[in-house]
Amino acid sequence: MECWHIRGGRRLEGACFVQGSKNASLPILAASLVCPAETELENVPCLRDVDAALRILRHLGCRAEQRGGSVSIDSRGLNGSEIPRRLMEEMRSSVIFMGALIARCGQARLSLPGGCQLGKRPIDLHLSALRQMGAQIEEDGGEILCRAGKLHGAEISLPFPSVGATENAMLAACTAEGKTVIRGAAREPEIGALQDYLRTLGARISGAGTDTVTVEGLQAKEHASCRIAPDRIVASTLVCAAAATGGDVELRGIDPRQFSTVLDFLNRAGCDIISSDRSVRCRAAQRLKAVGEVVTAPYPGFPTDAQPVLMAALLRAEGRTKIKETIFENRFRQAAELCRLGADITVSGRTAEIWGVERLQGAALTATDLRGGAAMIVAGLGAEGETLLFDEGHITRGYERFDARLRALGADVVLEY
After folding, report:
1. Active-site residue, selected from the candidate residues 116, 146, 240, 282
2. What is the pLDDT of residues 226-246, one digit of tens each?
3. Does residue 117 have a pLDDT over 70?
4. Residue 116 designated active-site
5. Which of 3.40.50.150, 3.65.10.10, 3.40.50.720, 1.10.10.60 would CATH assign to domain 2-19+230-416?
6. 22-227 has which fold?
7. Maximal C-alpha separation, the chain
8. Which pLDDT score is estimated for 114?
9. Distance linking the first and last C-alpha atoms of the chain
């Protein structure tokens, strides 16, 4: 059990860089299996989820090492296509290994993935996409067996722009015969990052960032490399922390367009947002204003992963804010814990109403999930007195040395393991 000691009431000030993206790193780690090659990655965050992905690679016979932000992988030694339940259950993103393994081995055996319990997150769209490329899939309880003598190109139409289904289809299509067109594809920046890496691996792929991705096979290369972009959700968390404390924080090396919807709402709340191509500064007012209605949506809409931290930033905002969650049915788990600080939040189904209060008071909280835990840190920074946040490791799945990063900006935060 980890315990975060947060003494609030201190204004965050200063500048920092943002860690590499977790959600970009994990699909690329899985993609290193698509063909026998050596891969060098830079700016990979040191996180529990990344460590879990590296252990899956090693279990499958690959060499996979991380030193600081550098990761080296040699997938030429791949000698298996089965991932045991104990490894699959450590993170939701483990399901992305399915597309990579069936591309490389023609088969994959794995169990349903783990990760944060945010409600139903079925992988039906993943399985449907693979079946359309010729895969035969058997489901037995929590076990999934995929087989394909040879995958073929297909016209795949996703009824919802699922990031994971888009990524799995992209990976499997790399070794399929013919052209695969994925319509209704997710448009997140992480899809573009995966495309860039697959191109260095020899894939003929285009369209990432639009709703149509086309894959026309792979001319395998022996070496591949890429640099992981900064994490837009960590960036969102940091600017929300600045807003919650009336702070003045500059993030460097980050593309503000990737989290522009978060910045837009903070601007509505009274923050000055000063952006350039590779930086963003958030200068907050002492008392924020409510922002009306926030509705989560697939990219380029407001990200569901940023919803909890924006909620935390607005707990003391003057007026009422309504948040509608359209992605996950159980994404407001942090609300009850935030109310322990004195917040006024009412949840009804997939809608939450936040009435701003004059002050928050530190209390003992328990992290519910990765982003909910980050929201409790943001709220604790804006509260008076000490907040103790108990966490079973959710936060360190997605935030690298977050306590040290916050201390560098003036926060009084200590993490005890």
Report:
1. 116
2. 999 999 999 999 999 999 999
3. no
4. yes
5. 3.65.10.10
6. UDP-n-acetylglucosamine1-carboxyvinyl-transferase; Chain (3.65.10)
7. 64
8. 52
9. 7
